[in-house]
């Protein structure tokens, strides 16, 4: 079977079970992290939604489409692979917003080669409309084009 964090077959457990990886205690905030500063109320942001474990904000530049939101965990996690539970919870909250948004992209990046610019997990929820002109890097034509 294939389990998170691994791209190989694993064995030794019951069928369908992933090995239990101990969760590393997380620092709630990392000094200098822009998203930790927002979560801690030390930097401005337009808050769209708050949950016990995550927040949703408007990107500081306004976003690439109307309704663009960032969903960010309250604890500092560098990227989607660092803590699967935090990542899954953050995705759950992004999915709740996506249900309200209609057509949209939900995107996260891991590492500089994948265009991650802030080293704190965040998911972009980007509402889409036909002909909005927004290209994803791997597409040839805009939505509806």
TrEMBL record:
<dbReference type="InterPro" id="IPR001310">
    <property type="entry name" value="Histidine_triad_HIT"/>
</dbReference>
<dbReference type="InterPro" id="IPR036265">
    <property type="entry name" value="HIT-like_sf"/>
</dbReference>
<protein>
    <submittedName>
        <fullName>HIT domain-containing protein</fullName>
    </submittedName>
</protein>
<dbReference type="Pfam" id="PF01230">
    <property type="entry name" value="HIT"/>
</dbReference>
<feature type="domain" description="HIT">
    <location>
        <begin position="34"/>
        <end position="135"/>
    </location>
</feature>
<feature type="short sequence motif" description="Histidine triad motif">
    <location>
        <begin position="120"/>
        <end position="124"/>
    </location>
</feature>
<dbReference type="GO" id="GO:0003824">
    <property type="term" value="F:catalytic activity"/>
</dbReference>
<dbReference type="InterPro" id="IPR011146">
    <property type="entry name" value="HIT-like"/>
</dbReference>
<feature type="active site" description="Tele-AMP-histidine intermediate">
    <location>
        <position position="122"/>
    </location>
</feature>
<dbReference type="GO" id="GO:0009117">
    <property type="term" value="P:nucleotide metabolic process"/>
</dbReference>
């Amino acid at each position: 079977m294939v389990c998170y964090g691994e791209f190989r077959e694993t064995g030794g457990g019951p069928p369908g079970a992933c090995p239990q990886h101990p969760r590393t205690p997380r620092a709630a905030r990392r000094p200098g992290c822009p998203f930790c500063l927002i979560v801690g109320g030390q930097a401005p942001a337009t808050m769209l939604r708050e949950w016990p474990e995550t927040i949703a904000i408007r990107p500081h530049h306004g976003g690439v489409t109307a309704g663009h939101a960032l969903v960010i965990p309250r604890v500092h996690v560098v990227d989607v692979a660092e803590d699967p539970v935090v990542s899954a919870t953050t995705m759950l909250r992004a999915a709740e917003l996506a249900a309200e948004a209609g057509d949209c992209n939900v995107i996260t990046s891991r590492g500089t080669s994948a265009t991650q610019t802030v080293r704190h997990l965040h998911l972009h929820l980007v509402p889409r409309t036909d002909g909005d002109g927004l290209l994803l890097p791997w597409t040839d034509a805009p939505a509806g084009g």
